[in-house]
Input
Amino acid sequence: MAIQLSDTSLLRTECYVDGKWVSAQSGKVFSVENPSTTAQVAACPEFDVADTEAAIVVAQNAFKTYRKTTPRARSKLLRRWYDLMMENVDDLARIITAENGKPLADAVTEVKYAASFLEWFSEEAPRIYGDTIQASNPDCRLVTIKEPVGVCGLIAPWNFPAAMITRKAGPALAAGCTTVIKAPAEAPFSALALAELAHRAGIPAGVVNVITALDNTPAVGLSMTTHPSIKKVSFTGSTPVGKLLMKQCSSTLKKLSFELGGNAPFIVFEDADLDVAVRGLVASKFRITGQTCVCANRILVHRSVYDAFIQKVLDVVRTFEIGDGLGEKTTHGPLIHGRAVAKPLAHLGPNFFDITVLADMKPGMKICTEETFGPVAAFFAFDTEQEAIDLANDSDVGLAGYFFSKNASRCWRVAEALEVGMVGVNVGAISDPAAPFGGVKQSGFGREGSKYGIDEFLTTKMIMTGIDPQ
Output
């Protein structure tokens, strides 16, 4: 399948290691399909453990030099990478739509969002500060400095194949780290296009390395999580896989940040502006056909406004058009592949799944405990504020939560009561490069984006100096 690009050199079909485009040593490749048509987009190298370890060695060698670059120099590299992304928004978006299936307008939004992390961390790079501390011993002086943690293994998901890479690579490079990026097998071409732009931006060879694999993914993951030269692993994906990777990382006690599964509650109180709440729900629940970790999964509506709210949601849902991401009228594309279709079916073509609204759901149903990751909106009624909070917190995961109310006291009360890492109050879209992104409980730990994001790629070194008191 040909992708119509202004710059065809952005569609790379080899891995990027040490500033060069390389194939797997075995010569093996795997096919990537367009989820809208199931036609082949192109093929990518099937990297194995030997290929992965070679990339890690390259990154380790590059780190010896790159860590010594000035923060301002790193800032300029990231800014140039950002500029190149913005100059190629349309082509990058078409690549995303071809491999991921999301509507082109959503893909354009993702590219700009992805680029914003490079811009943000280009500005954070020169602002890595230490502290001066008053030592207990008057004959000593005490300071802290921040240093890059080292080679970072970055494992990205397919649902935001550009943004989930820049959200990790941006702070890593700003901190002075080098990277080995495992591109998602379902959608690897965005990562490879970003590598091409990193190359054009002048980022030194070995600082950004992008590898691909399908069948060898478990073995490649094991290599990245156990290799002693990798000092940090950042992973976005499911909780079960996160637990496995964490166990593997324990062998070398790597620094970790994991953004894992969610089961976001979305609460509509009786005093909410229902029209605002509907807009918030549509933004949260149905973005890229429900395939985001912060999607509203359990919609809790006060009984007094329950019927009215569902009717308003149905009025909007009936305007949706499901189809090929390149279709002019398409508002929602397919799920990523056939296996993804099975999960929303369990909770209730080739990969298309109709927008579904389920009313009168009850606690204990499968959708209460599992992340749907599809366009299924499940509604529950509640009677009291405490009941809503209890229902919302009845989950092993805690990534995001949303609620709608006009009562200022309630807004603070409920925001503080929700057991999640991120809360949207009267807003359904909470992603922002300035905002710390991450969860609690089994949704993981660590934060991406914001001023906190760069700390995940730094270590704090204490330096105590004795002085002669004369």
In short: DSSP finds 14 helices and 21 strands in the chain. Residues 119 and 394 are 38 Å apart (CA to CA).
